[in-house]
Amino acid sequence: MSGQSHESLTNLLARRKPGYALEAPFYTDDAIFEADMDYIFSRHWIYVGVEPDIAEPGDAMVVNIGKASVIITRDDDDQVRAFHNVCRHRGARMIPEGKTMIGNIVCPYHSWTYGLDGDLKFAEHMGEDFDRACRGLKKVAIRSVGGLLFVCLAKNPPDDVEEMARVMEPYLAPHDIRNTRVAFESDLIENGNWKLTLENNRECYHCGPNHPELTIPLFAYGFGYAPGALDEEQLRDAERYAELSRTCHTRWEGEGLPSQEVDHLDDRVTGFRTERLPIDQSGESQTLDTKAACRIPLGALKDKVVGGLSFWTQPNSWHHFMGDHIVTFTVLPIDASHTLVRTKWLVHKDAVEGVDYDLQRLTEVWQATNQQDADLVEISQQGAEDPAFEPGPYSPYTEGLVEKFAAWYIGRMKAALG
Ligand code: 3BY
Ligand code: FES
Ligand code: FE
């Protein structure tokens, strides 16, 4: 960024008022968007997809993170690797975004050919002195956390991803992501800044009025309301939810399913949070009737009522793991006012559509919820662009995690700017 923008960003970061939304330029300014891509998305562990996206040797997936493009491959030796999608000859982009099957990575421009391990295997007409060994694809750091794939574009990635993996793997293991497959995938472009997408994800204050499909007992009381503001019936519901949560946690932990809340959203470079939440009263899944959408349980899960294990990461993901399916979300910024939200629905790898599950039933809750959230992000962006915009206060009861996201973001930006 230019010297002047750098200075104004430093000032904006310094004067951020905790407990309040960010100032408008954080949502609208192109220079701050570029800084977000440099300091947040190029230096932290970014969630890009799941191991089942590249289940077999020869499978490859390309994910674009801003201007960077990353190829993720599975080699014959079953190794998952990641490379910059930039040819080492004259730099051509080699594979378009999406999933494919390849034997080698062949640049379409002059046919330089790389193995799935990134080594340059063929390059014609380059002369005697040409050293292929120096022209392998540039590696990108990749870490599978129980089957969830995180990449980091930095030369020295934050090493606390290991701690996140150590904590999260026992939570994720019972759902056995590696033995699932992607039943459906959707890309939704939201008309808003990526931080509005994340802020919106970190609260359920908006759920009651906006998400009829995401049955209210699912989350609402778990996200906390001001005690004084509840009428008697709501208070009884909130107490019932708290009691249900306690008994479920005891039962699940007894069954070997880690369930207790772990929250490192704002005190780690690689911020994350998890908790296993009850679904409705004795619900099985995030479906319209709260019954399992898929007949084949995941992993070794026998008990159908295992709630929904939620996992949130900074800066760009959230996930819900049920007994019968998994829904996983990737946030990829496009520009200051556009953000891609990529959602994947995973079922057991042997599950057959139309036999073991109905795609409509599997996806309808989050398809509807995603569109509702996209609409909310769009009106938030419109407000942030209005000259009258002034950051308002977060609710201390229902928007604590929004504050944690904002505090993490401000802290990471300050750290990057020194
Ligand atoms: O990948 C490269 O460009 C380096 C430079 C020298 C050796 N080689 C692995
Ligand atoms: Fe890739 Fe020439 S740019 S082979
Ligand atoms: Fe929502």
What does this structure look like?
GO terms for molecular function: 2 iron, 2 sulfur cluster binding; iron ion binding; oxidoreductase activity. This is Rieske 2Fe-2S domain-containing protein. It comes from Acetobacter estunensis. The protein is an alpha+beta fold. It has two domains: 100 residues, Rieske Iron-sulfur Protein; 256 residues, Naphthalene 1,2-dioxygenase Alpha Subunit, Chain A, domain 1 (Alpha-Beta Complex), CATH 3.90.380. 29% of the residues lie in helices and 23% in strands. It is built from nine helices and 17 strands. A seven-stranded antiparallel β-sheet has the order 11-17-16-15-14-13-12, with helices on both faces. A four-stranded antiparallel β-sheet has the order 4-3-2-5, with no helix packed on it. The longest helix has 27 residues. It starts with a helix and ends with a helix. The site of fe (iii) ion has 6 residues, from helix 8.
List the helices and strands and how they pair.
Layout: H1 3-14, H2 25-28, H3 30-41, E1 46-50, E2 59-65, E3 68-74, E4 80-84, E5 98-101, E6 105-106, E7 113-114, E8 120-122, E9 141-145, E10 148-152, H4 161-172, E11 180-190, H5 194-201, H6 207-210, H7 232-254, E12 262-264, E13 272-277, E14 308-313, E15 317-321, E16 326-335, E17 338-348, H8 359-385, H9 400-417
Antiparallel strand pairs: 1-10, 2-3, 2-5, 3-4, 6-7, 7-8, 9-10, 11-17, 12-13, 13-14, 14-15, 15-16, 16-17
Helix pairs in contact: 1-9, 3-9, 5-8, 5-9
The structure holds 1-methyl-L-proline, FE2/S2 (inorganic) cluster and fe (iii) ion.
1-methyl-L-proline binds at residues 134, 136.
